[in-house]
Amino acid sequence: MDYVSTNKAHIAIELKKYQWDYIHNPQTILFAWAEEEEEAAMKGDMVIRSTNPSNQDILDGNRLGIEGNLIVMNNPENKIIVEVVCKEKDAVEIEWSFIDPNDDNALMSEAYDDGIVKLGKKGDVNAEYWYQYQEYTLNKSTTSNSIAITKISNFKSAVQFNPSGVGGDDYIIVANIKDANGKTIKTIKSQALTVVRRIKIENLYHMKGVRILLQYASSTNIQEYFKKAFIIYEAPSISNELDNRFSIKYLAQYDRNNTLTHEYSWKEIAAPIDYNPPIRKANGSVINTEKLTDEEKNNCNSQSVKDKADSWKNRLLRLKKESTDNWVNDIGINKAIISINYYHIMYGSDGDPDMDYNPFLPCTSVPIAIGGFTTYVGTGLWVPSSVGGMNLGNGIVALPVSVAGDDNISNIIAHELGHMTNDVVGGKPTMYRVEFGPGDHSQTSGVGLMEPTPFTYNKKIQFSDKEIKILKGYKQ
Hints:
alpha+beta, 5-stranded antiparallel beta sheet, 10 helices
């Protein structure tokens, strides 16, 4: 079926008032015409628009290289308004339905379902698609939840449509205009409407003296990673330089009370401390201090040494999180990509001599568990290799200077954005999805972008088929 394009829809000898009204907000309105172009343009048309025009939830399909239009569904409760204006003198009601063009929309049983939010609708007899809009009373079909009927009033009728929340699901909305006898006297169909989700980066930042990430974080560069997952990626075209106060060497060692260096040194925070009051551990041990006694230094495998090392580790992890949160909150940012120096000395540095400070000598082989892997206490560098990027939560991605190579930088930004799709920002999920695996990483080797170290290959890495399904909103 051929449809008149949006551009053609603007060509007319005479514009009605409602057409002038819609032209004022072209970004959130779609014009879809009936099969007979001339008749539709003159006597009937369908307008589709967002319930909240400021959100720009209706986009041109060219953004992903597909026909029709895109409906942004990060919020699975999002609805679009469908209006039909009809001058047919015998028209009394509209029967609304839809077509799944390729019969491949996600089954409810296949899609994300946390017991409250369900993204998939196909095959769910309880799924709701149609909702009343304004005064146009809605009557739902008793035989199919995909059909609803509204009356025509003053040559117009409207309804709200709630598609699935799974990326790639597509619909063609069908409006059968009927007379008083229930006979269809005209049929109007929309263009294909494809469900997408969106990553919207509001700001790019860089610490003073640190490279700017514009070319790497650009929509042109990153969109290709997410195209197959039906995710729209948007980013600004400028990067803001951070003040001296926030342009520190180690982001997660930020000290908001230090007006000179603005950060903690490793020796300062890693030095063993006394606890007042003491800490009681789950195994019943009581920790009064992190400092090792002479007896413990001669028996590094003792439970007391392990307990002290564990308490020391937890204290530093708490301080790391507190410093990171303070840094983010003091700047006042969210939904951002930031170019930084280093994240934390224990995650890599440029040969800082502080890394050699070992508060647990000679007990350097005491194992400690961090983030799902085991390392050893007192080594300074706590992870097997320097961290490539960090998802700071709240829709924030940080990239350190230690990452080199155009492809590696692009991979890591896309990798961290993959994590960011699971963030909660402003009390709302960025989008609903299951985790890729333990630690929100895929358990693969050389397959997919969401494995723990995709930046080590020095070539562009793409999301695996499994990762794409998860990003779309499938269970696996």
